[in-house]
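Case study.
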Amino acid sequence: MAVAALPGEAGPDVDRTSLKTKLRRAERVNRARSFSLVAPLLLFVLAVFALPIGLMLVRAVENTEVRETMPRTIAALDGWDGQATPGEDVFAAFADELVQTQKDRTTALVGKRINYEVPGARSRFLKAGRLVDAGGGGPWREKFLAADPEWGSVEFWAIMKRAGATFTPYYLLTSLDLRQDAQGAVGRNFADQSIFVDIFFRTIWISLLVTLATLVLGYPVAHLLAILPPRHANVLMILVLLPFTTSILVRTTAWIVLLQSNGVLNDILLALNLTTERVQLIFNRFGTVLAMTHIQLPFTILPIYSVMKSIPPSHLRAARSLGAGPLTAFVSVYMPQTLPGVGAGCLLTFILSLGYYITPALVGGPQDQMVSYFVALYTNREMNWGQASALGAILLLITLALYALFNRLVGIDKVKLG
Amino acid sequence: MQMKSLKMTLSALALSATCGAAVAADSLTITSWGGAYQTSQDEAYYKPYTAKTGTKIVQEEYNGEAARIRAMVESGNTTWDAVDVDAATAQQGCDEGFLTPIDYSKFGGEAAFVKGSTFECGIPTIIYSTIYAYDADKIKDGPTTIAGLFDTKKWPGKRSLQKTPFGNLEFALMADGVPADKVYETLKTKEGVDRAFKKLDTIKKDIVWWEAGAQPPQLLASGEVVMATAWNGRIFNANKVDKKNFKIVWDGQLMDYDLWSIPKGVKDLDAVYKFIEFASSPEAQAAQTKYISYGPALLAATPLVSPDILKDLPTAPANAKTALANDPVFWGDNKEELLKRFNTWIAQ
Amino acid sequence: MLAPSYATPREKLSYFVFALFCALVFLFLIGPILVIMPLSFSSEPWFTYPLPGLSLRWYIDFFTDERWRIALQNSGIVALFATLIATGLGTLAALGLSRGNVPFAGLILSILISPMIVPVVIVAVAMFFGFAAVGLNNTYLGLILAHAILGTPFVVITVTATLTGFDRTLTRAAASLGASPWTAFRTITLPLIAPGVTSGALFAFVTSWDEVVVALFLASPDQRTLPRQMFSGIREQISPTITAAATLLVFFAALLMLTLELLRRRSERLRGTGG
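After joint prediction, the assembly is written out as follows.
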């Protein structure tokens, strides 16, 4: 390219190649310089953002609890045929390692891991810990079986063996309401533990509702902003952007104050005789969607607005002068041209809605909590970090897929702020 | 001026980056349950302790999430020096090794406390109880038994329950006719658990869940709910401080202990013990009852409590007739399953 | 005003309905914020209208309570440093990308913008695990780094937007007149992209200033920020001090909006694209 731009430049061949190389070198240097500007941020994002997320994804399949505390039991189980209750070698190794876990106070943690797949295992492990603490020595097989016949369960030992593997599909399967039985076959999880598929659909459904609501409310407003003279439009634009820069917590607090049973909205409804008793407006789906719509509305409006702004008003006028009615002109000439903006705004709102946590947690009921809430719940309250990571991984996958779609259709560089 | 504040922030940054919370020597971070209860601790323990020793108390609030203690301990950066926990957490914390075993010799031995209240990893501080209450200004002919909590025919309207299986399952069974002394026996069977959830199902759509102890009095005050389970001291406090007319239904109350616990890996164990010793003195324990109606767990404190406060305590004979004592061993063993089932149930 | 002069009466009616609908949407947008402000001046701790009386007690509470004061201070420190990092790195990256010769520019841009897209709980949990391993949990530095990450996409987007209208021949002209790259940058590029950099910095600042989820996971009591303090307030002790804090934040946001609007005007003037 650069060479072609220098036609008629006479000179020996040698010079031309050297010029070529020089130019190429210059380009390379230039490219390296550009990249060196980008590199610090790229490295920063990769190290502080992408790497931790990558490590979280590993946690979704990581399986260290049993492997690290009971290696010899797991090794002994390697030689087990899986047909009948394991022999004394397994029980002896198990009892031996229990002594150590009792000392380290990790018995309950191993028990907890097995408990995910075998209900009741945690307390059984604690009892076994007390049994070995009492001392007395083997043979352990009889002692364990006498204490609790469940120790003879082939299914339990099969699961114990599987829990000793380096990786486990357990958390990901559970996130999809699936479970692996002792033989390794995958089937549906127990009904009283199957909630996650519902929760993913609920998350998508709430996001769709919010997207639709922002579109219905935002489209006319975007149109108004686009056709008003800039002087007026700018003032109204501030009304759109002010909530945008106001803390989500402030807005959520406002909704709580407005929507609660003796809140402002109920007072108004009663005063206007629209209802006779106070209506439940908060801690339910209605309150959640309403508050989320309020927060997301500017995100939908802005892209639609910027597309509408670029449509010449002459198009509508031309359609009218050619005999189209106002509605026909609007629907068949104007609206199709706004579709890119609608697509961008809706997709952005949908993607961002999927990750909501604070707002549903504060204004929703238990039936309105979305995936993010459960990621936080399993991290903070239940200490089931594998489950939190697995749910997070699936949510991340959905989000990134939609982000890629957005990038293809719109281009993230087209997003404008303010 | 700007330069100075910038320098200050820079040094603050450097400090926090290098030595974390290593300033523990002259300050202790103590975590409790917020609201009126924490205020009572502030008045009876923290303020006098700071006045006496100069050690600053940094207060932190939580809602009993044991996981937050464990996560902190596992990350190797223990920032909470002492935590007020319930009995089940004290048990779990010992089992899972995130709480420090207590040296009872510093406290005059286990015999100094109410029998059965001492734990390997927790020193009892108060006896509280989970009860339910209603606003007597709004309901004239209020319920008197635990069954009333579930009777939406006679007392229609929303109820607020704590967002945990703990307590709710017991209440459900007692309301369903199981006598207090048979509750945990029943809950040990799958049928018993099913029965409790079935009872809870009958009012599920009427429940507003609370998570922080300060919420029930507020939900009652705002009229958001007609009745709410709560910790008795919070209701007492709303009546006393905010001049409310909330009525406590003592029938089927669930009695439990709050304990001081020390997360593993605290920077200065001796300093923490010093504080807890102060908070376990008869004078300090008796002083706390002036601010909230919880019974002192230290036997020597009871004679110092004034009689007109004694009648509001969960342990007062008139209140304790049908009381159920929480069984921490049951909850230690079954918490995982019941929590899982409860979370699934509540989200459906 | 909205209807064109050739509109029929029926059309005028529909324009009226349209205007009314838009007015209601604006009310929806701004109403909730307006509703809580007066409550912060209430003399009683209940969130109800009509106000029982006026008082400044919640503001006094806000400014005298040590916890709110520390939270305010922490938010300031964290947001300031997060903004500096985000603006510095973000501006450099936008400059590099806009030169049009970075390999895999599209992919790199997607990565740089992704902190805006990835659900914040995932960011928070991932950093909670990741930072614990290197001892960054419960430190100012950890929170600052996390907030800087969340703020950079805004800087990249706004600076890139200013650079798309940037006439590159200007810096080339400067270079041909003997200016060093740094002089050319300082005297030509920087003044032109300054509005973009500033508004990016403002967005980065607001992002950190309002951020609660990451703070919930990464901050210890020592680093408790304003939103974190508000969050525990809303969940644990719903006191009107929160509405006082909220009102102060709304004024802060309005001030910020005004700055952004002025910057936008200035930028339009500079580039001659106003109107």
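Observations recorded in class. Chain B touches chain A through 32 residues (CB under 8 Å). Residues 1-24 of chain B have pLDDT under 50 and may be disordered. We will return to this complex in the next lecture.
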